[in-house]
Amino acid sequence: MKERMRKFFKTVKRIRYFLIFAILLLSVNAYAWFVFVTRVDSSITAKVRSWNVMFQVHDNDIANDVVFSVGEIYPGMPDYNDHASIINNGETSGEVFFTIKSIQIFNDTYTDADYSQGELIDILTADYPFSIDISLTNNVVAPGHTEYFNIDYVWPY
User: Fold this and answer.
1) According to DSSP H, which parts of 38-130 are helical?
2) Are 133 and 60 contained in the same domain?
3) By the 8 A CB rule, do 22 and 15 touch?
4) Burial class (CB in 10 A: 0-12, 13-18, 19+), 103
5) CA 117 to chain centre
């Protein structure tokens, strides 16, 4: 009889542990379910700064490429200077750089497909008896400021 009672109490203990474990597991799962189902609302308000940069040559707005053309160049010609204005009407600074796509001097054409930017600049400054200098007054255009893209042709006599 004692043996039977011991087995009975042992079985009751196992059932008790199983029920405690089942209740604990059920409560954790219920909590996780309600946490998952609960909808959380949040809102973020941000101000996006505008970036409004205009390009102008001789007070005309430019939408695409800038083209500078000099009709005649000859030894002893007066120095030719021209510029494009870069006007920042936005609220944040902007970085500015230029890329030379093609150069046509006399009947020679040089493109960025065949030459690097450094080689194209070297062609303009060193390969001919005249010099063409391209520069920016500043690589960063601050809000409310104007910077200039300058081009100078010089052919001394």
Assistant:
1) 117-126
2) yes
3) no
4) middle
5) 21
For residues 119 and 95, the answer to whether their CB atoms sit within 8 Å is: no
CA pseudo-torsion sign 98, 147, 136, 83 = positive
Q: Which residues pair with 88 in a beta bridge?
A: 53
Specify burial of residue 68 (Cβ count, 10 A radius: 0-12, 13-18, 19+): middle
* Segments in the chain forming alpha helices (H): 2-37, 117-126
Same domain? For 66 and 97 the reply is: yes
pLDDT digits (tens, 9 = 90+) for 68-121: 777 778 888 888 899 999 999 888 888 888 888 888 887 889 999 999 999 998
Q: How far apart are CA 144 and CA 121, in angstroms?
A: 30
pTM of the model: 0.60
> In whole angstroms, what is the distance from residue 99 CA to residue 112 CA?
9
> 136, 93 in Cβ contact below 8 A?
no
What's the total number of domains in the chain?
2
Same domain flag for 107 and 57: yes
Question: Is 28 part of a structural domain of the chain?
Answer: yes
Give how far Cα 96 sits from Cα of 9, 56, 76, 89, Å. Answer: 85, 14, 33, 14
| Residue among 154, 130, 64, 131 at smallest CA distance from 101 | 64
38 and 59 assigned to the same domain: no
